[in-house]
Amino acid sequence: MSIAKNSEITASSSKGFEDAVRNGIKRFSKTVHNVESAWVKEQKVVVSDGEVDEYRVTMIVTFIVKD
Fold first, then answer.
1. Residue 51: CB partners within 8 Å, gap ≥ 6?
2. Using CA atoms in the order 53, 61, 27, 18, what is the torsion angle rounded to 10 degrees?
3. Edge-to-edge strands, sheet with 35-48
4. CA–CA separation, 25 and 67 (whole Å)
5. Which among 25, 38, 43, 64 is placed 20 to 30 Å from 12, CA to CA?
6. Is 25 within 8 Å of 18 (Cβ atoms)?
7. Per the confidence metrics, is the pTM higher than 0.70?
8. What is the distance between the alpha carbons of residues 15 and 67, in angstroms, rounded to a whole number?
9. HSE of 37 in the Cβ direction (CA atoms, 13 Å)?
10. Helix, coil or strand: residue 41
């Protein structure tokens, strides 16, 4: 039997939302193993001087807990 756990994380990128997702998963996977999936809960941007400066995503990441 497997047990899965969820964690909510926020990640950012200056390139776009997809890059922010990749950055978040890559960084989360450095300390938490067995990452299975992620659900993007929220997307938002930081605006500076009328321009998009940063893309941010909030994700629910699911990972399997090892025995």
1. none
2. -40
3. 3-13, 51-65, 35-48
4. 23
5. 64
6. no
7. yes
8. 38
9. 5
10. strand
